[in-house]
User: Fold this.
Amino acid sequence: MAPDTLADAHLVLIDGSGFIFRAFHALPPMNRADGTPVNAVYGFTNMLARFLRDHVGSHLAVIFDAGRLTFRNELYGDYKAHRPEPPPELIPQFALVRDATAAFGIPAIELAGWEADDLIAAYAKAMVEAGGRCTIVSSDKDLMQLIRPGVDMLDPIKQKPIGEAEVRDRFGVGPDKVIEVQALMGDSVDNVPGVPGIGPKIASTLVAEFGDLEAILAAAPSMKPSKRRDMLIEHAEAARISRRLVILRDDAPLPLPIRELGFAQPDPPRLATWLDGMGFRSISQRLGVDGQAVPAAPAGTPAVPVAAGSESVPFAGYETVTDLAVLQAWIAEAQAAGVCAIDTETDGLDPMRANLVGFSLASTPGRACYVPLLHDGDLENPVGAQIESRAAIEALAPLLTDPGTLKVLQNAKFDLLVLEHAGAPRASPIDDTMLISYAMEAGSHGHGMDELSARHLGHTPVTYDQVTGTGRNRIPFARVDLKRATDYAAEDADVTLRLWRTLRPLLRPNRSLALYEQLERPLIRILADMEQAGISVDAVELRRLSEDFSQRMAVMETEIHRLAGRSFNLGSAKQLGEILFDEMSLPGGKRMKTGAWGTDSSVLQALAEQGHDLPARILEWRQLAKLKSTYADALVEEINPTTQRVHTSFQMAITSTGRLSSNEPNLQNIPIRTEEGGRIRRAFIAAPDHVLVSADYSQIELRLLAHVAGIPALKEAFAEGQDIHARTASEVFGVPMQGMDSATRRRAKAINFGIIYGISAFGLGRQLGIPPGEARSYIDAYFARYPGIRDFMESTREEARLHGYVLTPFGRRCWIPGIAEKNPARRGYAERQASNAPLQGGAADIIKRAMVRLPAALAEAGLAARLLLQVHDELLFEAPESEAEALQALAKRVMEGAASLSVPLVVETGHGHSWGDAH
Assistant:
């Protein structure tokens, strides 16, 4: 239902003419039963159906060209004059395409004398003036001039947003200057004359230097003599005419008011009837309206729609496929359905090393199969003939690459890497049920298949332990009886498909469709590429570090034993607790439920801050022990024997804020500011003749805080590039920034970052080594100077209490499960989470937006660089030495342009032969 006020509305405008021609040229000839050509209609319908499944908007319309002649032909008679007439087989499809739009219940808008682009411009302007926003679904370069706050574009084929960064990549200028560049370079497709000899690069350079077309033409006579100067002077009037031709008329009349464009889901019987009449059964099945067509009836007899098929199909009756012809039949069935689920079974959890033991397919709920490839069985359960792995992959390849069949997976990145490691091509298009769930409910619950099945399908799937056993009795999956293996594996595909049918429609009403479609799903391929690339490590240096850490730990151990008065196992929490609280009688000890004393880092830190040496030394020893085991030792073991690189695994659906995490190895917890952390980073090295390039957002969460809380002083400081911590100290403590001592600045820095994480007076006092009362006075002074920050924190907590989640500035829902806890400590923790989540989640959204844009930017710039790692607010690339400077500039531009805030985003870059050197 459309919102009551357009101030809350989102108008989506589909460039219908662009859809038609793309569909016509992409598909082979097709005819309806009566012989009418329908390939463009079929493609248009498919694109429209998928768009409605994928993208949310409160208002929607498809905009068409009404005819070839417009006011531009009166202005310039040769405008589009050399365009050929449409092919004869396309002409009858124009009306059918409009029928398709009507069948979906979407307004089809056109106006004689005006181009579709002008109508789009007029609607976009009206929407923004009404306080709403507009998304233009098109890749047409001419529409890029319309991009501005409140107006964005989406490429319907690449499924990628087009914003200011993409416009700059294409034209070399921002959207507000596109018409100046187009006026100079002209357009051979539309017969816009422009100035001969001036292409996009020269045009953008001139616009950047002089500002606009008139300024360029005015300056031309005084330019250095050249052919370019002569052309500008000679063709000045042609350039002026070109500008009038390319500028879109946002004063065009609106054939329908925006309020009449409110989106409603298609009427199933109406849509089914039209699809049935066109013979588009596969689309009807994919949309779930097959069988709902209104049957023909005698005149005057009311038609009654046929009920849709039931989803209550049992999870059983799966087929084991061991014959290639049978597999090919299953693949054909999946392609006919237009959507299928795929799952893989492996002999390991590392997709870069695991072998593909088998895979499963599901084409409709309750219909699935398992294809064993490497099962070996045993004497009691011998395995018969199986399809040879290479033959099975070759048979599967056309399905994986078929653009007309959606492949649905659960935790798609893992399965795609497994399939590619086995020799399969890259699958596209895909959907991921794990990420669909995560986009809507990050932090609310887990997103594993079993949990989602129980939650949404009311079904508990067969578990891995049930078919392989546990502990010492566990057997490899390759030795599981084929019947039991099929029950388990095929059910996984069946569950995945049913989850997709259940969850996918919820993205739109949950306002999570754009987040999933434009960020989470594109990241699957990007992260898979990063994992495949891996990163080199210096094994010799790591072993040297390990030995150094061992020696230092041994020295520390001797000192700790001396302080304790006896030897004990430093790794034993029980023995340590007895020494600290029983033998040394230190204060603050608390026993756990087991009866042993608690000795976690917070306990030891509190004792160390009271001046006790033993807990301080234990903390240092533990830090070295962790670095030794987690990095110095483990990284050497993680080196892939084939690639000789380390391949971390990025977890996409773990955190509640959208941040990525990594494991095996975990690269998120390397200390940033310690000497040991620096030494570990220096063990990550570039390939020969390459460098590592680091691009790191500077103080991104503080910048987001200034933006969302609207703090004038902080916004001014960031806008002017001031030292934000010195500025805060000056504002809060009333001291001049000039000549400020480091201790005062350090206090302000601790407050700035502490406030983001909801730090308490006790916590701040512990950081600064001051009494809690004094720390409380600092926090009070901070909030008194910046009351907007307190208001923001309170409003986010209230939002969490009201809805159960908070929103990032980009619309991500971060669920806060403990916000209603009766226990004050747990509720307080949840409230701190609520205050921080919009900032941490917003930072995650921004870096993900940058990551999604970077591959295309790198390719367009012709750079061989590749993205290797994402760690918090930093991206790490590997590039040939010759590309270092260009890559730094490109990464900085793309990352700083990933979001438009009221404060500047700043990215710091560096390069070197190691990760440490790049900082």
